UniProtKB/TrEMBL annotation:
Keywords: ATP-binding, Nucleotide-binding, Transport. Residues 7-232 form the ABC transporter domain. InterPro entries: AAA+_ATPase (IPR003593), ABC_transporter-like_ATP-bd (IPR003439), ABC_transporter-like_CS (IPR017871), MacB-like_ATP-bd (IPR017911), P-loop_NTPase (IPR027417). This is ABC transporter ATP-binding protein. GO terms for cellular component: membrane protein complex. Belongs to the ABC transporter superfamily. Macrolide exporter (TC 3.A.1.122) family. The lineage of its organism: Bacteria, Pseudomonadati, Spirochaetota, Spirochaetia, Spirochaetales. It comes from the Bacteria. Pfam families: ABC_tran. One of its GO terms (molecular function) is ATP binding.
Length: 232
C-alpha cells in the first residue's frame, strides 16, 4: 500500500563493550521508511551504518528505542519470531555474495524457498523465474566458481528476491565490482524497486549513494542528513 510505513525507528540507541571501552554505535537514530521507497544509507567505516543495517534486517536489537519492521516491534519478539520475520520480510544482498560453492546457481537460489517449506517443484519454478529476471537463465547449472563477479552478484540478487520480500537490504553490493558491472547491478535494483519493493543500499561510496532518490547520511552513530525527512 502506498504511504504504508514498513520501517520505523525512534530514538534508537545501540551500545556494546569492546574490552573495557563502551562503544555507542547508534545515538538516538530516528526515521521512517515508506513501502516502495528506494534509499541509500551512507557513511564511512565506523559510522554506525552496519549496526543500523542489522537493526533493519532483524539481525540485532537496540539497547533502547523503537525498531518496528512491518509494524512489529522487534524488541518484543523472540529469536524464533525474529527469524521468521526476517525470512519473510527481508532479502539480503552482500558484497561477498555468500553463494554456497558446492551448489549450482539454481540450487543456491532455491535455498531460501526450502527454508520456507515450499516443495521442490515449485521452488525450482520460482528460482528459475528469479534468475531469468537478472539475466542468468543460461547459467542455472553453473557453480559460483564458474561465474564472474557481476554474475555472482546477480545470482545473489535472485536469491534475495526469490521469496518476494517486501524489503531488499544490500550491503556494499557493488564494492567488489568494476564500475560498469556495478552500474548494471544498480539498474537491477532500480527495476526491483519499480515493482514495489523497498530497496535500501548501505554504502560508503557517495556516487553509489547518489543513485537513490533518498539518501540518509550517518556519522558517529547519528544521522547527519536525510533528504527524505520532509516526507516522514
Amino acid at each position: 500500500m502506498e504511504n504504508e510505513i514498513c520501517i520505523r525507528m525512534k530514538d534508537v540507541k545501540k551500545e556494546y563493550h569492546v574490552a573495557d571501552v563502551l562503544v555507542r554505535a547508534l545515538q538516538g537514530v530516528s526515521f521512517e521508511v515508506r513501502r516502495g521507497e528506494y534509499i541509500t544509507i551512507m557513511g564511512p567505516s565506523g559510522s554506525g551504518k552496519s549496526t543500523l543495517m542489522n537493526m533493519i534486517g532483524c539481525l540485532d536489537r537496540p539497547t533502547s528505542g523503537l525498531v518496528e519492521i512491518g509494524g512489529k516491534n522487534t524488541a518484543e519478539m523472540t529469536e524464533k519470531e525474529l527469524a521468521y520475520l526476517r525470512n519473510i520480510t527481508v532479502g539480503f544482498v552482500f558484497q561477498q555474495y555468500f553463494l554456497l560453492p558446492s551448489m549450482n546457481i539454481l540450487e543456491n537460489v532455491m535455498l531460501p524457498l526450502r527454508y520456507q517449506g515450499i516443495d521442490r517443484k515449485e521452488s525450482r519454478r520460482m528460482a528459475e523465474e528469479a534468475l531469468v529476471k537478472v539475466g542468468l537463465q543460461d547459467r542455472l547449472g553453473h557453480t559460483p566458481s564458474e561465474l564472474s563477479g557481476g554474475q555472482k552478484q546477480r545470482a545473489a540478487i535472485a536469491r534475495a528476491t526469490v521469496t518476494k520480500p517486501s524489503i531488499i537490504l544490500a550491503d556494499e553490493p557493488t564494492g567488489a565490482l568494476d564500475s560498469e558491472t556495478g552500474r548494471r547491478v544498480l539498474e537491477i535494483f532500480s527495476e526491483i524497486n519499480k515493482q514495489g519493493t523497498t530497496v535500501i543500499i548501505v554504502t560508503h561510496d557517495l556516487n553509489i549513494g547518489a543513485h537513490a532518490p533518498r539518501q540518509i547520511s550517518i556519522l558517529d552513530g547519528k544521522i547527519l542528513q536525510d533528504t527524505g525527512a520532509q516526507y516522514v
